[in-house]
Amino acid sequence: MTAFRDAALASKAWPFEEARRLLKRFDKRPPEKGYVLFETGYGPSGLPHIGTFGEVARTTMIRRAFEVISDIPTKLICFSDDLDGMRKVPDNVPDPAALQPYLQQPLTKVPDPWGDTPSFGHYNNAMLRRFLDTFGFQYDFISATDFYGSGQFDAVLLRAAERYDDIMKIMLKTLREERRQSYSIFLPIHPETGRVMYVPMKHVDAARGEVVFDDQDGREWTVPVTGGRVKLQWKPDFGARWAALGVDFEMYGKDHSTNEKVYDSICRALGGQPPNHFTYELFLDEKGEKISKSKGNGLSIDEWLQYASTESLSYFMFQKPKTAKRLWWDVIPKAVDEYHQQLRAYAGQDDKAKAANPVYHIHGESVPKSDMVIPFAMLLNLASVSAADDKETLWGFIRRYAPDATSQTHPQMDRAVGCAVRYYNDFVKPTKVYRAPTQLEREALLDLKSRLEAWTGPVDADALQGEVFACGRERFDPMRDWFKALYEVLLGASQGPRFGGFIALYGVNETIALIDKGLSGALSASQ
Question: Chain centroid to CA 122: how far?
Fold first, then answer.
């Protein structure tokens, strides 16, 4: 471990870079609370999306990196702001009209549209925790409703009342003039209606720890700031939470970056030390728009896991967190295959390379071996030409190519086979478009067919790839036009596998038959 720690201390992998920055925070003294606290925040105003998972996954990667280079204990909390009022009804819930009467009610007071839990907030919290538990994250969950209501936040809320004017000055500088007239850092919970009130404070009594306000009917109310009767606006809540919990590290999306100084200033005003930050770029849907909990656009975690493993999603999250990432169905095959490429490389790497390998940051010291004898992209092509509707169809080809492979001895492979069948039928099959070959392409295909009919050597992917090259080398410039023709005529796609490997897997005789179908027009006629 000492050698690996040395490699980690010099590694340019972003989790180790962030861990080293965090360690500098404790150069003079260790944390008084006895551990380093990582936090992720979640607003359960809608179903948790894949970006929420990404935040926890990436924070866990930095936490793991920190534990390699430091002996200071660590904790991770996932904080849900479920006391927030429901500002609008999400589009992706059953019977949205039924929730309209509950606007501005705390999310833990809004009925669960599915009827499974005590509230909409509870439902979304349960969804989040199920997702996080699926990936084996180690974390403590905190509900804002419980945090405020139990009194754990009372000391900081009373301090906020004492320093109300100072915090208001921080906030008012960030607001437009019309917003300043009605703004307060405190949002009282109406004693009768239970609604979160966005109203100005008539008086803040720091000595008594109370606020006075008028409701929408002009009635005056006095409520204590403690015990969950008042919550903080979301920007002050950020900074106050850091001060209350002693948070040392929190990451968030680029959309929060303009508020970072505000959060920090409020934390300091309440006597806390702002945490280290890490800002990541946002996830985009197929149209290049930011994914949103309320819209439900982009992929969900459950949707990804229908077509690929949990580890492939973690791998996707590791890649370039400072770059905006398009998150749509077509990124899945690439993520699966690259993850397994890194698994295969890991065992033979030195400590420096292992510290930079994404699979270390996904698995820690327990990096598994890959049993994927065939790439996921190749499985999709195999499913395409065989019109596979079940796993056994693909396993028939796999066993011929790799006789020792079975679903029992190769569980990763077996899961990928099932995912490939689903992915093919849901995304590839509906978009397949075959075309007839040009005269030049026909000549090359006949040449390839003739070479395969005369083939007497072993079914070797590299040797067969040589034959494919020979058919196109003197006919096509650039050569990619030849491979594009193979994919479009025989596979109904514009991109495809290394064709020698495809022949080895699909079979020489089967490929001959496929070429015959492509030349006769049977494939294009079947559309």
Answer: 21
